[in-house]
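Continuing from the previous page...

OK, I double-checked the sequence for LLM class flavin-dependent oxidoreductase against my notes and this is the correct one:
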Amino acid sequence: MSTPETTQPPHLALSIDTADLPAGAAPLAALSALAQAAEAGGATALILRDALVADADHGPRGLDASLAAASLGPLTSRLGLVVEVPSAVTEPFHTATAAQTLDHASLGRAGLALRTPSAAEIAASGKRWAAAGAGTGERALLADASDSLEAIDRLWESWEPDAIIRDVSTGRFLDRNRIHDAAFAGETFTVEGASITPRSPQGRPPVFVTVSTAAEAALAGQRADVALLAPDGGASTVPDAGWLNPVRALADAVLAEAAAERSAGATEAAPALWLALPASLPAATIAEALGAARSACLAVAGVSLRLDAGQAAPGAVSTLLAALGDAVPLPSHAASGTTLRAALGLSPALNPHAAARQLRLQEAI
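Thanks. Re-ran it with the corrected sequence; updated structure tokens here:
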């Protein structure tokens, strides 16, 4: 199934591993300069990732992506700050509260991208995973990722919007009846109790899922707000005549799964479809890829460009975005203070506990 062609300007995100920041500069200063250049150039979001262990490609680990993103909150005003986190080796409770903290620090511009961990990360950090006796195949890891996103969502929603009351006259700071147990039990973990972080500005930060396989397409269709289509893992060079076929196959799989979810009673809209491409492609080629996808009736709403080492200097980012702006009409700058959900065209996240409470009140009248 394909979606109708869209005429809205595509969103643009830049994606970088914190180990690939320019050498010779203080890492946080380099990252801050990159983020400010991305915001000034019209990017919708910056996606930060890090490896839990050193690898052959990057050597030593870079900055912790969650902490680094939180430091960017006060230094930016429009840019979405998305953190890529490995499932299975990262506790969902910690992932949920880190995303909420980032959402508070950025005044509602946080996003979460969940990925499956590498074999090296599992070997070094997967005590929970190993203890559960779970396999390391793709389906087992993606099943855990789905469980993690469900638990994270429950934690994000565990505080109703008006749980903090600050009633000086009675000395009550919280209404405990508006704080709820996440109560999740999965195959390899359980989560009990509420989040330790109050409900954040967005309530539910947008969720991004990279889609390179049919199994990842199923996860994205069920859980994502944005599906990043990367049929070869995002390592494309120049799209050729057959390039659209695997992109279409992944898009159809995502949308088919999303349609099945909606028929089963899910209330969220289908995920937005974005292309995931290397930033080393010429701007004209990126524009060509977007145009080809849209002409083929794929409603591609954005593109995520992966920056490699050497592409993350502020000047290089500004040049890249200027060239893209000439080749592709990017969305107008979001107003300062706009949430990432609003920038992406997502409706506000409604708290299910508050909605149920309101329904009970209406029925009692």
